[in-house]
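re: ur question from yesterday

yeah so i grabbed the chain u mentioned. its 403 aa long if i counted rite. heres the sequnce exactly as i have it in my notes:
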Amino acid sequence: MKILFANKFFYLNGGSETVFFQERNFLKEQGAEVIDFSMQDERNLPSEFSDYFVPHVDYSGERRVTPKLKTAVAFIHSREGLKRLTRLMEKEKPQIAHLHNIYHQLTPSIIPLLKEKGAKVVLTLHDAKLVCPAYLMLNRGKICVQCEGEKFYKAATTRCQGSFGKGVLLAAEAYWHKWRKSYEYVDRFISPSKFLADLVTTYRVPAGRIRVLKNGIDADDFVPGSEDGGYGLYFGRISPEKGVKTLLAAHAAMDSRIPLKIVGSGPLEENLKSCYPDAEFLGYKRGDELRSIVGNASFVVVPSECYENCSMTILEAMALARPVIGSRIGGIPEQVEDGVTGLLFEMGSAAELAEKMDQLWQNRSLRRLMGKAARSKLEREYSLKKHLDGLMRIYRELLEGPA
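ran it thru and got these structure tokens back, copy pasting raw so excuse formatting
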């Protein structure tokens, strides 16, 4: 089997890249020929196909608001990407092209080309980009569904991204690919959660073209510790949509005085550090150091205020037998079984979150039972083997037809 794997980042930048490299490595181990397509970056992992990668471009910061015309066009339709991908496809001729995070740097313009060159196209949905041009479905910190998969002009008129110019560009991108029918060339969409699959089928894509395939973790790589270190933990990006401010307000309002560790970095980090001195901000951590911090936590909090899909943060906590307190939103309730593997609270409610944190903090035996149940649920429903077996079924269905 010969498969092209595409993702705009070719290094571990987040949860979507974790899934990307898990699948890529598995396929190579199974003897499949994997062809990489990505963006050039000094942080990239090695690839024999790096000469075909598109030149590096960074759309972060103010440049995204009022870009030059050439940059705006490339944001929507990457001519350079098409040129390089054409050469790669004509040389390698893969049977399947599996796309992950391709927006803005690689662009969905590559999808029709992949079909034209004879590949079956699979697209994993890591977010709600098909429904919302800005992908987070947020407007000034509130959940927003106004675009409904077709009214993309609202990204500009509502100024949901804080800028009319940015909204115009995002709307133009969405309308262009709808007019070009870029997504019509996708043979199978993969959704890591039932929540996102239902959302996309409600507004955009027929249900028959989507398969739910939960993210997975190799449980053998995570050995739960026997220690309860006596602290609550958040680990992830410190940005508005992640709800860290709500967590810190809840921590300050708890009846119990407990240590709270915050691991990660992001735009709110310095402000929250100064406003909430009782929490311990540890900065960005990874690898064994992060695993040790997670594995010794009393519980992990995932206070997201946006539609999470299938959170790798939650899966890592479950793998280390830590109970999770999570927002009752998006795909989180699929992962956290309320009262069994953790607790759920109303998104944005610092008062309810404080109650849930007090409840777990004051009951060590409950924490232990929930942690064990979380590990069992992970092994049963979110094993990496189950994920990869499901991926191969999708590939075989495309190449051979339904069994």
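noticed a couple things. Residues 364-381 form the longest helix (18 residues). also DSSP finds 15 helices and 14 strands in the chain.
anyway ttyl
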